[in-house]
Amino acid sequence: MDSQRTPAAVPATVDATLALLGQHDYVADRRLATAVFLALKLGRPLFLEGEAGVGKTEVAKVLAAGLDRRLVRLQCYEGLDTAAAVYEWNYPRQMVEIRLAEAVGGVERAELAHDIFTTRFLLRRPLLQALSPEDGVPPVLLIDELDRADEPFEAYLLEVLSDFQVTIPELGTIRAAAPPVVVITSNRTREIHDAIKRRCLYHWVDYPDASRELEILRRKCPAASEALARQIVGFTQRLRALDLFKAPGIAETLDWAEALIALDRITLDPQTVADTLGALLKYQDDIGAITPDVAARLVDEAQVARAGA
Amino acid sequence: MSSASSPAPGFLAQLPRGKMAENVLHFVRMLRAAGLPVGPAKMIDALAAVGAVGIENRDDFREALAAVLVSRSEHLVLFEQAFDLYWRHPRLLEKMLAALLPKVQGRAGDAAELPARLAQAMLPPPRPRQETLEQETDLDATFSFSAREVLQTKDFATMTVEELAEVKALLRRVKLPLPELPVRRTSAAPRGRAIDVRATLRRSVGAAGTLAPLRFRARRRRTPPLVVLCDISGSMDRYARMLLHFLHAITNEGDRVHVLTFGTRLTNITRHLRQRDVDIALAHVAAAVEDWAGGTRIGACLLEFNRHWSRRLLGQNAVVLLISDGLDADAGEGLAFEAERLAKSCARLVWLNPLLRYAGFEARPAGIRALLPWVDDFLPVHNLDSLTDLAKALARGPTRHSGALARAA
Prior knowledge:
The structure holds two protein chains of two kinds.
Chain A: H1 14-23, H2 30-42, E1 46-50, H3 56-66, E2 71-75, H4 82-85, E3 87-89, H5 91-104, H6 109-116, E4 122-124, H7 126-131, E5 140-144, H8 151-163, E6 165-168, E7 172-175, E8 181-186, H9 194-198, E9 201-205, H10 210-220, H11 226-241, H12 250-262, H13 270-276, H14 284-289, H15 292-308
Parallel strand pairs in A: 1-8, 1-9, 2-5, 5-8
Antiparallel strand pairs in A: 3-4, 6-7
Helix pairs in contact in A: 1-2, 10-11, 11-15, 13-15
Chain B: H1 11-14, H2 18-33, H3 40-53, H4 58-69, H5 75-88, H6 90-104, H7 113-122, H8 145-153, H9 161-171, E1 181-188, E2 194-195, H10 197-206, E3 216-222, E4 226-231, H11 237-253, E5 257-262, E6 266-268, H12 270-273, H13 278-288, H14 298-308, H15 310-313, E7 319-323, H16 335-345, E8 348-352, H17 366-371, E9 377-379, H18 384-395, H19 404-408
Helix pairs in contact in B: 2-3, 2-7, 3-4, 6-7, 9-11, 14-16
């Protein structure tokens, strides 16, 4: 850890944060930029909650790229435990070590125990990697979809998030020299405990408005013509206003745009919409609700809006 | 060392001071009084955030405060209204609140609901409203054992005020033993299936050279979440008021119990029921629920639940208790579809129906016929004994026999 590398400076203003995100093709609204700026400035974890596909995970990726830091990702799932999230002892190597010690002979038990439980035999999982980075630069730690983990793991995170330290019984407490940039995301399949939220800066990531979605589409999908991009945005914006079980996120919009380009469509028509709706809507009930009539009406409205724009 | 959560010495000295800081403090206190969970730590955070962002740009100033002070998307609306009111014309606000005062003391649920809530937050609290669900009379509950026996089987709807008070006390002691299900997390267990390599190895170091006994782990077990949907329409009025006491008890007992009421609209009352004191909790519920003893639109309410709550509440093998008589003002319109979706999103759907106490109960009304094919258990809920039966039925474990009931009916 002696080869200290100086990390890129964090942005000094909200505008600089907005520009930083923009440089890496993340079109953020000012509200999100403010939350990101404060998280960096105050050294607090950023808690992003929102529907699936609105670009929560992307924030962490862009931050890692923009700040020139490594991205350490911890994907949560039910039953996630310290062995998978923090550290694990390398049992095969430890057993070999024991066998070798026996073969050589003359090794005291206490000494053996001391030798076995050292960092040499420690497998570092994401949280530990984030707290004691090998290159000395605090990374961006992404704790993805925390709502999928169970409550005991949440409780464990409290120590990590408030003191940036973990305790390994055999080794002692490992504390981060400099805290990592922490981004936590949740799809809200259950409520995250207030104790976690209290330690974080909270931001609800909403669906983008039309102008922002258009900007995202231009950047992420430059192959789409301006006219098609406007129609796509007009259509998805209207789709979200309908009473659907799961409205399409920005990820779905991009998928759909890719699909339309792959099919060489230059303009939207009801038949194309019906054929490709599976890229936008992921529930059969929702797809059923977009009858040819509804699709035709939405396409018309999207085109009228384009003419007016 | 960094200043992550434990601020470095001198940190407080760097916070903004003067009139601005005072105003921020007042704003935070107002939010707290309006019901947002913002403690003193948030106050310091708010000042630090204001110090970091500055006050040149009003939008940045607002977003900075929002990032610190709001921790649920539902609170955002309240925050924004409070922000606009407070930071525009503090004087104007005072005048407006004074004008609002008579309204505030009136019945909750006025058109200007949110400003009223904020107004309450800014002003000394009016005397607690005497609007508990039932005018309870204090009585020395010296019931004999036999009297309690009678209460066990007596219908809630035919009880006297004294009996109701006594039963409420008993209701609070009914337990709901949901069967424990295995979860993905493991713990050390002598008869477990998987070998605990870590524990084994630690033992074998101590016993170097000799055979070390294997250690094992097994999956932990845990009760699944429970979601209660309670009908509070006119026809269910008497039962619902009693059952709220029962729901209050089970909400405080388990950490994963959620309660929603429905009549013409759906209201999540879990937070209110978490209040330990039953009278305060029920007073909060009374204020929050706006459709007491009105009509029932079961289909519309289930649709709302499926859209907005099912994904948040029905994870991890949740059990749903639907408490309703199934009498639907919309004549079961759209109900079958939503009931199917509900049944398919939870591990077990239990329908508690007070009408089932009648021997000649027939599944005539459209609402009941639409619901029945999708419920796993169909049980009465009209007296204490029926709640005990419910506990037994839940303890029996999951029974998926969708459709069987409909065929029998």
